[in-house]
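Quarterly update from the structural biology core.
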Amino acid sequence: MEYTELLEKQIIGRLKIDNPWWKDGQCPTFYQEMNPRLYLDIFYPLVTDLSIHRAIILMGPRRVGKTVMLYHTIQKLIKDGVSPENIIYISVETPIYNGIYLEQLFNLSKYILGKEENDSEQYYVFFDEIQYLKDWEVNLKSMVDTYKNVRFVASGSAAAELKKRSDESGAGRFTDFHLPPLTFYEYIHLKNYDTLLTEENVSWFGGSVINTTDDIAALNQLFINYINYGGYPEVVFSEKIQENPGQFIRHDIIDKVLLRDLPSLYGIQDVQELNSLFTMIAYHSGSEFSFESMSKESGVKKDTLRKYIEYLEAAFLIRVVHRTTDTAKRYQRETSFKIYLTNPSLRCALFQPIADGDEEMGDMVETAVFAQWIPRQSANISYANWKVGKKAGEVDIVGIDSGQQKPIWAVEIKWSDLYAERPSELDSLLYYLPLNKLSEAIVTTKTILKDQQMQCGILRFMPVACYAYLVGKNTLRRTRNLYGL
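Predicted structure, tokenized:
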């Protein structure tokens, strides 16, 4: 048997293994037993809306459940009446597929199914981890143009690079969909603790619909668990992984991104330098950085640092948040900025889980809150930091009206009830509100929910776990609206 014939036989065998529904009519039981992420309710309609002839690109960091979402989509297609033989799944990172074009794999699948001559049926084709194929975007664009009766869906981990390439080569052919790490709202849902929170229209809280709880101690413990283990579905459901989250997250997520994905995409030579930089950032997540201080501390040149930070953002490991003045203006010369991990459990895996009362708790709570905002693509958020004469101040999160470049809301993140009892000590916030004609602001607490009328406006105190839950819920709702659902 010739080599090419043997290779083709092996590829056919692999395709049959990866598509068990061709034989059994359903996805493996393992995936059926897993609770789907709430983002499936947004993703699935995009896949099934055949009125728009585009490929769907599912992007996100490693281990957030992209492959599982593809399997849940496949199972739902079968349940909704799509023939299992019209659904094809191909994991592009499978070594045996190396050097094989997407179209060849698609045609081999149809050959296995005895449909190689049939181009009239509607197919759903899923390419998982597509970033491992060189020039994937050119291949996929060509297939979208050629096969009018096929819905192509692709997933990939190096999200920003995927988006960049899809923007450049797939204009009008690709629809991007971002799957973030678990929000606290999703975490509560997956753990089946929804009944712990109730939706309440609180008249004295500005008439807003917010989420409250009768057991704040239990909710706070879940919030701490989320900070330690909550960003990745596999960690949430596995007590064994939680015993040593560092091994799972460090080896399966951080190392593969830092040692394999980023070097291969960007040609990074000194991976140890990049790894050291990320470790430093992770330890100080939520702190203010400058290229000057980072360069001195790490010994890495400033231009190289800029590139590394860009790459780490591209991999969805960090998010840079920019500084504004006390009147929401961007600094002409940006010397300082904050960096947050996109998921607080990254830090806990690198070092150790944290407990209530630990010194790092404040920064990790702030990181967790920012993690709820990060998936909201339309949000223009920053932090305010200023020095006017001898007076300096800071407000943790500020929402900016992009058109008018002025603040429209402000939030102070605290893991303490101190300021609910002594609100006059919130000097920076009390200065910021009247200066920017804001009539209210949210201040998070550990356990207290109340309004406090101040001379400059209303301070709305709210437990930070409730606030994180609410932001995560609204982020999901706004993502739904973004896609017209």
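The first strand starts at residue 55 and ends at 59.
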